[in-house]
Amino acid sequence: MGKIMLEVNNLKTKYVTRFNESVYAVDGVSLKLEEGKSIGIAGESGCGKSTLALSLMGYYFAPLHYMEGSIIVDGKNISEMTPDQVRKTVLGTEISYIPQAAMNALNPTQKIINFIEDVIHAHDPKMPKNMIYDLARERFEVLNLPKEVLQKHAVELSGGMKQRTVIAISTILSPKVLIADEPSSALDVTSQKMVIKMMRDLMVKGFIKSMIFITHELPLLYNVTDDIMVMYAGQIVEKGTAKEMVFDPLHPYSKGLMGSIIVPEAGTRDVKLTAIPGTPPNLKKPPAGCRFAERCKYAQPACKVQSIEEMHMDDGRMYRCILNQNQLKEVENHG
Length: 335
Fold this sequence. Notes:
With 335 residues, the protein is α/β, with parallel strands linked by helices.
């Protein structure tokens, strides 16, 4: 095992509504991310992916609240820090976050170089502007972004170019962990490919040490990440290698999720697409048992009342189900 860049243990966070109701959006998530590795997080809308991304930064502000658990970045426990400490010593250098639709957050009246100056001056107020420009120019050129972009305004850039520029700005301080939430959504296929290539280059060239890639577009995860975690109703229900998760998922929800997409690989031509019936549970009052039980065709009476723990296999694979691996294979074969 390589050096651990990010270790998360039993992380629980919640939203508190204006009616003082709690929504348990991240419930007991644990993961380890090694240097040089990437993890993809998949799941349908509302399962908690984006909330998990926010929670992993250790930077909490209403309505999101930390409950318990630890977030350790390169040996440093950031879950014990104040928001001000996290902002000054963690964000940008230890962890960088690219939110959904980040390209729309660029101020149209500022030049791109001004954004970079703001990011760097937040950590090093004394760095001269000419040094910042040289650093930005070199980084942009290495990432195949024209240096001329630095002197442009956001409105002068296409959607794909804006997204790649945002990624370059977000990683200008070479963070150890990059969390990217739907970085290629709302882009055409060509722009998506360029964004994915850029993120691979960031890893290969050592500008980032590790990556968490969140998307609902599962074929992207197969081509980008080493491992995939499937999230449902605030919990991780399965984790495995990208190949295992796409071609041999164990958990009934993972099977349904993978069966609802087209994977452009040999052997999938005649596979029929399926839909998962029902809707996710209300996380204001999570079910006592398996959160997928109401939608699972293999559910047993015990599934709805018994707390379902994570099952860890010798090869590092994990799933959360009352059935063991052989039973899952058997019920699937008897369909």
